[in-house]
Amino acid sequence: MASYLQTYDATPAAERWRLVRGWMHNEPWAFYAELRKDRPILVMPEVTLATRFDDCAEILRRHDVFSVALYKPKQGDYFMAQDDTAVHWREKSIMRAILDFEDIPAIRTFVASKAAELLASAGGSMEAVAGLTRAVPLALVQEWFGFEHVDPAKLCKWSYWSQIDTFWNQPFDAIAWSDPAKVIAEREAAGKEMVVYLIELVAIREGKLKLGLGGHDPVTRLLELSSSGAVKFDLRRVIENVAGLLIGAVETTSHAVVNALDFLISRPDDLAKARAAALGENTAAVDGYVFEAIRFRPAFPYFFRTCEEDAVLGRGEAYETAVPKGTTVLAVTQSGMFDPKAMSHPDEFDAGRGLGNQFHFGLGLHECLGRAIGRVMIPEIVAQSLRLSELTVGSVDRKGGPVPESWDWRWKN
């Protein structure tokens, strides 16, 4: 039987990226193992893949060489679509301050309560994506972040299309979509609806502040900061960053929760141990099972960057590879987390492994803003689900797309 690379080399150049993409989605572990061993940097006209830990880390840390230029057509001048600029420096600092680290235990308590409430009221059956894995972060956005008086379905739509277009509808993704332009149109329409709502929300919050009725939610605190004139942060920037809170919170959380649970369910022994930890309220142990499951099946198997100058990956190694300016580079972090140079016994499932040398929330300048929140929200939703008695599930339905869209559950009520 031919190896992956033998099959790849025998395939016409124009068909190779489609072939590789299929392996990345359908049989990643064996494919990446072969790449790490025999061709750690895989060069194609459409993209260049980096599969070893050190190269993934270099791509994500070297924002001066490997930029997020592909975000800009989707996110405009939002700070996450910029690299080391004054706007990025200032606004990421503001948003980190607004998302108080001290609130993390209370956020975990809120998530636990909301997830338990949704499951208890479901009567022993649920479509879990809409009913739980999206519903809990949506509740956090509404009740904790301050998105009042809006249909959660609208919030979900706005978050969904922004995520889909930004992270799954890039030029190198064109082979996966029958109509990429339709995805862009959906994101633009959703964005316009969201901005109208956010303008109204900000106006209401400003009025409350003038009446002395301000709260402590992030929207209100951002308005207080903006009105103080202490930093360059006008109302347009407030609205843009409030939108980022919504967009970043929902779909990535849902995707990670589904992947973690689905993977654990495929491993009955580990599932039983994780469930025992959840029933025993051993949060540290549950977290270990969840994030080890996500190492095997991450929501984002790679991060994409644009090479801004001629560069080299694998410098000093036998596979040292020149990367020309303009190249789209994929740091295949799902592979990097299985590199034996960075991880002991990487092919083994080890719930006590810890989070060192892992890429769950990115790395470097563009590390996820909501890392601390995701670090508790994702495993807590899983923990509440693990407590269900005699849970049986169907197949995760992605409806032909990149993210979980539907998942039917039944359990003993």
Automatic annotation (TrEMBL):
Pfam families linked to this entry: p450
Keyword terms of this UniProt record: Heme, Iron, Metal-binding, Monooxygenase, Oxidoreductase
Record GO terms (molecular function): heme binding; iron ion binding; monooxygenase activity; oxidoreductase activity, acting on paired donors, with incorporation or reduction of molecular oxygen
Key word Ribonucleoprotein present: no
Residues in coiled coil: none
Cofactor names: heme
Family matches, as InterPro entries: Cyt_P450, Cyt_P450_CS, Cyt_P450_sf
Metal-binding in keyword set: yes
Similarity field: Belongs to the cytochrome P450 family.
Protein name per UniProt: Cytochrome P450
Organism: Methylocapsa palsarum
